[in-house]
Amino acid sequence: CLRGESIHVEERRSANEEKFSCLMERIRNCSLYGAICRVALCPLADTKFTPRYKMEATFSLPVSKLRAFVKVRKEIERCYQLIHRLGRGVIYIGSARPQPDHPHYIQSHELSRRVANLLGCTTWTGAGPGLMDAVTRGALEAGKSVGGFKIEKEAGQWTSAGSHPYLPPDTYLTCRFFSARKHGFVDAAVRNNSSDRTAVIALPGGIGTLDEMFEILSLIQLQRIGSQLPIPVLLMNYDAYYSKLLDFLGDIEHWGNLAKGEVESLWKVFENNQEALAYLARFYDLPSSKERAEEHETGIS
């Protein structure tokens, strides 16, 4: 009986090893795996995968990690495909909590409508409630395309299924992985040529907004994005919302952990929408934001 059980265990182990080899072969052939190897300066042909765990009782752990890798890759590819269809543009990050009667909701709604008219590009959001909803509605009122990257289990989400109440299903994705969602946001803001009009606009928000905002600033600081074609980054300091954060960054500079003027070189801070619109008009050498907005509003009416 024991001998039979031992043979059965060996057969299962052999089957698992075969599955592992097949899975690794698929991953080695995928484009993302190759990109990771290139970033690490390791020739793909010389790269050998060494499992962190022995292929015994714990074998299922590395397999689960590899499966997660494949899922993330597929989700990132879906984000890229959506951007390819809708086009790059302005990405907005902000709180999912403010209601339609909140002053920041009203200001964000107006800003997205006027920016969409000014730049004429796709508006990208987290496709959620709060300020993301304000931005979505503003861009739609301007008659421009809107795309979104939702995330599962977000604070204040509308339904457990992650569907959007009014956006067409083919204009947004519900992401399971934050890394894929961030890939989407960054790629939507990167300018491929001088005719691309993109921007990153940070609205008032909480931990998630700060996370996304500082990750983008880090990528710009390290010249991973925006090194050849700069990307305008705007921080909307409505009602002095971010003033204490700016003071804190000033303290960091004072203690020598940031170079003098380093933060100011990464973004521009604005107290109101008119200042932000004027800056974008100058950045892209467009007619004044006021004239452009009035022209579009007249055409719509």
TrEMBL record:
It comes from the Eukaryota. It comes from Opuntia streptacantha (Prickly pear cactus). InterPro entries: LOG_fam. PANTHER family: CYTOKININ RIBOSIDE 5'-MONOPHOSPHATE PHOSPHORIBOHYDROLASE, EXPRESSED PROTEIN. Pfam families: Lysine_decarbox. This is Uncharacterized protein.
